[in-house]
Amino acid sequence: MRRLAQSTISVVTGRWADHLGCAPEHFQTNRTLVVPHLGIGEYHGVFIFRFGAAVVASTPPPLLPTLGPRLEQLDAAQLVPEACVRAVGEAAVERVIGPAWYGYADVTSLQPIASTGVRLLTLDDAPLLERLRAACSEADWKEAGDLTIDLPLVGQFIGGQLIAVAGYHVWWDCFAHICVITHPAARGHGYGKAVAHRLAEIALSRDLAPQYRALELNQASLGIATALGFEQCATSIALRLKPLPIP
Fold it and tell me: What is the pTM of this model?
């Protein structure tokens, strides 16, 4: 059962419509729409976004005549990387990113979490943040969103050591895009969930809608989101293209 308020869903569909260059009403349909890049800028690739039964595929403007008819055949019910690659052409695709899970929370969906040792970080905590970064792999840190001390950050402290941190980037003046990472030796104990929950509360107090994105393969990250009451609203698949003409 959906717990998100209708006002939250309206914000989500409205801002994504602005970003992709379509009408918000499209997300109430079961159609696939192909558009030229708008908010995505000069990304040399195809970005495919599904909300419910509606799909928007965004392409570089010069490729719209070639790729448009192919991408229009994509079916939301069968939107998997293999189908997207076939639509674009396997020889043209350099890398596939996704499927990525997008979830949102508001005051009606966010679940209560009891925690201790969680607080906002300050500039004085920069050395502790660097120590946590050094303990994590570069790939994990990058996937977590390259958290830096200038962001709003919440940390979990055990014995004076920073063992988990969550921060957010502001998207389009309305979303708090939440990123979370936990020390490799402290994973599986709910610390990531604790810091993400506190950060979501802070975002809501600042009139921002918490947004959580994770690759569908990352079940640990998705577990944090769903336990906190984030509801999946959308899925994306990005296809980075080779610097060659599309056949």
Answer: 0.91
